[in-house]
Amino acid sequence: MEEKFKNLPLRSGVGIVVLNKENKVFVAKRIDNPKNFWQMPQGGVDEGEDFLDAAYRELEEETSIKNVKLIKEFDDTITYELPDHLLGIIWKGKYKGQKQKWFLMRFIGEDKEINIKTKHPEFLDWKWIDIDHLTSVVVDFKLHVYKNLKDKIKKIIN
C-alpha cells in the first residue's frame, strides 16, 4: 500500500446475506466491475444510522428487496482493504477499505420483486447460488470475508 493511503480510515459498512427458501444466496454482478465477479449486497452506514437500519436501506436501494426476515446479526465485524489499483479511486479516495457488520436474512418474497434497475443502479445481473459457491465468485480482496461468512452461514442453516 502506498504511503499516502496508509493513514486513510476504514469506511463503516454493512453487508447482507440474503437466503431464499432453498437456502441459496443472493449475489449480483457490479456495473463497475463487469468481469465474472459477484457479491452480496453491501454498503456504507450513514451518519447517525444504526447498522440494522443501514442494512435494510442498502438492501432496498440495491435490489428493491423489502420482504426479508432477520435471521441473525453477526457479532463481529469483518475488515477488508482495497487493492492498490483501487486506492484513491473508490469512495472518492476517502477510505482504504471497509469495516463491515454483516446480517443474515431470509427472503420471504417472490423473485419478481427483485429489481436491480434502481434509481442509482450498482448491478448488471443477479442470481441465487449455492452457499458453497460463494468463495468462487468473489473478487480476491474480499475472499477472506466470504470464507468467514460461508462458515458462519453453514453453522446456522445446517
What's the SSE blueprint?
Blueprint: H1 3-6, E1 10-19, E2 25-30, E3 42-44, H2 51-63, E4 68-81, E5 97-107, E6 123-129, H3 134-137, H4 143-157
Parallel strand pairs: 1-5
Antiparallel strand pairs: 1-3, 2-6, 4-5
Description:
This protein is of the alpha+beta class and 158 residues long. The chain has one domain (3-157): Nucleoside Triphosphate Pyrophosphohydrolase (Alpha-Beta Complex). It is 23% helix and 32% strand. The protein has helices spanning 3-6, 51-63, 134-137, 143-157, and strands spanning 10-19, 25-30, 42-44, 68-81, 97-107, 123-129. The strands form 2 sheets. Strands 3-1-5-4 form a 4-stranded mixed sheet. Strands 2-6 form a two-stranded antiparallel sheet. The longest helix has 15 residues, at 143-157. The N and C termini lie far apart (39 Å). The model has no long low-confidence stretch (mean pLDDT 94).
Beta strand % = 25-35%
Shape: globular
**Low-pLDDT residue spans:** none
CATH architecture: Alpha-Beta Complex
Mean pLDDT across residues: 94
Radius of gyration, CA atoms, in whole angstroms: 15 Å
Terminal CA distance reads: 39 Å
Characteristic terms for this protein:
alpha+beta; two-stranded antiparallel sheet; 158 residues
